[in-house]
Structure formats: structure tokens, C-alpha cells
Design brief:
2 domains, alpha+beta, Rieske Iron-sulfur Protein, 10 helices, about 450 residues, globular
Length: about 450
């Protein structure tokens, strides 16, 4: 039978009878799967510091592996396989020690690296603790999030220390939200600027204060970089000759940053910074958990409508990001959460009919497929590299320029503006924050006089 993916005439749902399967090589994340092996070459956030009550381990699942995360009494964070190497009792019922954790069943004692410190029921000359270890992964605690590396120890990369983690005047508040679906369909949302026009604007009305101009269709340009993609979308609306550009970072495999929340873009500005840094960490093949920081600051949140108390476990202070609303509200005013979760537990890509607005999604999938294949062929992949200041340069944020129309072909001109400003941002990426902003403004004005 010929594979039929879509109906091609009115009232012909009958034509779509064949059950098509998800692309499991691309979507499954467990041990020894193609995508699982790729994802295990990166650091991922796996828990919030606030989850680690003193003396209590926490059971988690990440990349289809059952784990426990805990803070021992000396303050170190450990991430171990959940089931004890002895008789498989769960370490979620273990006892926290000064160094590591002790299994409740027979008292075997494990350090945070999996080393067996003691097997109290065994003879004193037992060699068990010298022969085996409990499964364990390196962990790092940073600004309220717990990160973990789950790949081969000899291939462990440096922790990705982004410049956006150290912006002067930014207070980073961690949060985490569950979604009942495969990780990819949620993270793809971050590279699709066109959904903002419709989901956050035209369909239900503007959902984000201060960004009403996002109702206009943008000109979008994507730029590949080592370890990621930087893209920008530009709009001109009204008669004020303002060109509004929003820059996004997508860093492989699952990190995204965008522009400012709760702001006003009604006057020229250069190199505004992000209000949101976020990862989508796979729990298993059909569940994911977003971990991130809301950046609270006065420079890029001039409306000051953000709420620190509404950021944390299963909550963040902007619309449509969690399951915790009534069905009536979800249906009458759907947000991002409804868009990605309603695709099903694991989206069947063969059923999609992609259009011109899906350029970013197609680019993301292409890059991921390429790197997934390379990892499984034992080949190296391009990674994020720090600048001279030791930090990885990022570009997420907003720029507003005052530019008269260059010609009637304004979309082409806006594309030129995006390319020019992107070049300036990347060229200045290695500079210290204050100098960087000054150079960016000067270079933009050199290209477009009196734009800022």
C-alpha cells in the first residue's frame, strides 16, 4: 500500500489510514540509542538546588536512567544510579553521610563518584569495594541548578560557562517545568519565531505586555556558529521608522535564550540582553523537563511586571508555560505549553507539512541529525568554545534602530540590517561587557548613521 501522509482533497480524512511511526533513531534518548549517545556528550541540568533538602536524596529520571541526586553532609552534590550495586534497593531511601550516601538495605556506603567506601556486612578483607563501583556521574551546582554529565568520562567537555550567566545587574532565579512529551518538540519552539506572531498575538490577542508589535510578520535570518545557531528577526511597524530586532541563541543540543521580557521597544537601543536562559532536558522518550533562569534586571525589563515569587518549581512568571491552568483557559487562550504538548507524546514528523516559516525547525533538525550521526560514527562534533575572557559568547537580546526606508523593497533592506548587526555582535563577542556594548553601538552607527 502506498504511504499516504496527508489528505489531498476536501472531506478526505479517509485517505489517511496508515499508522506512521515516529523517527525513533532521532527521538529516543535511552542508553545505546543514537540520540541518547549524542545527548550524553553534553552537560544537562537535572535538578534544582531547592529540591535537595538536607539529609534526603531525591529520585529523578534523566535520559531514561533512574538516578538519585543528593547533597552529602560536607556539601558536595552526587548523582548516582538509583539502584544499589549490591541487591538493587533504591538509594532514594539511603542515608546521607559526611561523604556520600549509605544504602538502607545492607549499609553499603558510596562516595559521590561511585567509589565503595564500606561494605559493612562483608569480611574485613573483602575485595568487593576494590573491584566495582556504584554507577555515578559528575555533577556541578551553579546558581540554583544541578548539572550532570552522563557520557564517557574521557570525552567530558568543559562546563558551558556562558557570558549571559555573568551579566552585571542580572539576578538569575531558577525554575523547572514538566512537559508530557518528547524533548525535541518543546525545544523546537525556541527556534520558531513565527509562532510568536500567531500563538502569542493574532490568534488570542497579545499575551506578553510591551511586545504588541510582534503581531507583524518578521524578516528572519539564521546564522550557524560552532555549537549552535544565532538568529534574528526584524520588523518595522508604524510611522516612527524604528526597526526592532530580536536576537536568539540556540546552543546545541537543547539550550535557548531570547530577548527581554516585560519591556518597551519604543526608542533606539543597542545590545539589550536576555531575560531567559533555558534548557529542555529529556526525562525519557515521552517526557521532558525545562530548567532555566529568569533574568531579573532593570535595563531589559522596564515595565517591571516580572514576579520573583512566581518563578520556581513548576512555575514561571509569564503566560502559557505550564499545565497548571484549567482546560477552559487552555482552550480559550492556549500558550506555548499547549502547542508543544498537544503534538502528542512523540510527534510523527512524517505527518507534518512544513512551510516557509519552518526554516529554523528544518535547520535545527538537519544540524542535530548530522551531529547524531557523527557521534555514533565515533567522529568529533563542533562544540561551543570560550572567548578570550573564558566565557562563551551569546547574543540573545534586543536592538532597536531608527532607520528610514532604504527602498520600497523593505524586506530585503531589513535582511541586510540583520546581517550587518549580526556581524557587529559576533565581532564584539569576546570583549568585556561594558566595552562590548560601547563598540556595538559605535559600529552600528558607523554602518547606519544616527541609528542609535
Amino acid at each position: 500500500m502506498k504511504e499516504v501522509r496527508w489528505a489531498t482533497r476536501p472531506y478526505d480524512g479517509y485517505a489517511i489510514r496508515e499508522t506512521l511511526q515516529p523517527d525513533v533513531d532521532f527521538l529516543e534518548v535511552g542508553p545505546a540509542t543514537m540520540t541518547g549517545e549524542y545527548l550524553r556528550r553534553f552537560w544537562h541540568p537535572v535538578a534544582m538546588s531547592a529540591q535537595l533538602d538536607p539529609g534526603k536524596p531525591v529520585a529523578i529520571t534523566i535520559l531514561c536512567e533512574d538516578l538519585v541526586v543528593f547533597r552529602d553532609l560536607s556539601g558536595r552534590v552526587g548523582v548516582l544510579h538509583k539502584h544499589c550495586a549490591h541487591r538493587r534497593a533504591s538509594l532514594e531511601f539511603g542515608r546521607i553521610e559526611e561523604h556520600g550516601i549509605r544504602c538502607c538495605y545492607h549499609g553499603w556506603h558510596f562516595d559521590i563518584d561511585g567509589t565503595i567506601l564500606e561494605t559493612p556486612g562483608e569480611p574485613e578483607d573483602s575485595q568487593i569495594r576494590h573491584r566495582i563501583c556504584q554507577g555515578a556521574y559528575p555533577a556541578k551546582e551553579f546558581k540554583g541548578l544541578i548539572f550532570c554529565y552522563m557520557g564517557p568520562p574521557e570525552e567530558m567537555p568543559e562546563f558551558p560557562h556562558l557570558d549571559s550567566m555573568e551579566i552585571e545587574g542580572h539576578e538569575l532565579i531558577p525554575y523547572s517545568i514538566h512537559s508530557p512529551n518528547n524533548w525535541l518538540q518543546e525545544t523546537e519552539n525556541a527556534i520558531d519565531p513565527f509562532h510568536s506572531v500567531f500563538l502569542h498575538g493574532r490568534i488570542s490577542g497579545p499575551q506578553f505586555p510591551g511586545l504588541e508589535h510582534f503581531l507583524e510578520l518578521p524578516v528572519v535570518k539564521y546564522r550557524e556558529r560552532d555549537g549552535g545557531i544565532v538568529y534574528a528577526h526584524a520588523r518595522r511597524s508604524g510611522s516612527d521608522n524604528l526597526v526592532r530586532l530580536r536576537f536568539h541563541d540556540y546552543l546545541f543540543p537543547n539550550l535557548a535564550q531570547n530577548g527581554g521580557m516585560f519591556q518597551v521597544m519604543d526608542s533606539p537601543k543597542a545590545f539589550g540582553r536576555t531575560s531567559l536562559t533555558k534548557w529542555v532536558t529529556p526525562i525519557d522518550d515521552i517526557n521532558s523537563r525545562k530548567f532555566g533562569w529568569r533574568h531579573f534586571n532593570d535595563a531589559d525589563e522596564v515595565l517591571r511586571q516580572g514576579s520573583r515569587k512566581n518563578v520556581g518549581w513548576e512555575k514561571v512568571d509569564f503566560y502559557g508555560q505550564t499545565a497548571h491552568r484549567s482546560y477552559e483557559e487552555k482552550q480559550s487562550n492556549p500558550g506555548d505549553w499547549e502547542a508543544w504538548s498537544s503534538q502528542g507524546a512523540m510527534n510523527v514528523h512524517k505527518r507534518e507539512y512544513l512551510g516557509t516559516t519552518d526554516e529554523g525547525v528544518a535547520l535545527l533538525r538537519s544540524r542535530l541529525r548530522r551531529d547524531i550521526r557523527r557521534v555514533n560514527q565515533g567522529k568529533p562534533i563542533n562544540r561551543l568554545t570560550p572567548s578570550n575572557n573564558g566565557l562563551i559568547s551569546t547574543y540573545g537580546g534586543d536592538t532597536v534602530l531608527r532607520l528610514a526606508k532604504d527602498s520600497e523593497n523593505d524586506p530585503a533592506f531589513l535582511g541586510l540590517v540583520i546581517d550587518t548587526v549580526t556581524d557587529v555582535h559576533i565581532k564584539a563577542g569576546a570583549l568585556e561587557a561594558g566595552e562590548r556594548a560601547e563598540i556595538i553601538q559605535r559600529e552600528i552607527n558607523a554602518k547606519f548613521p544616527d541609528a542609535i
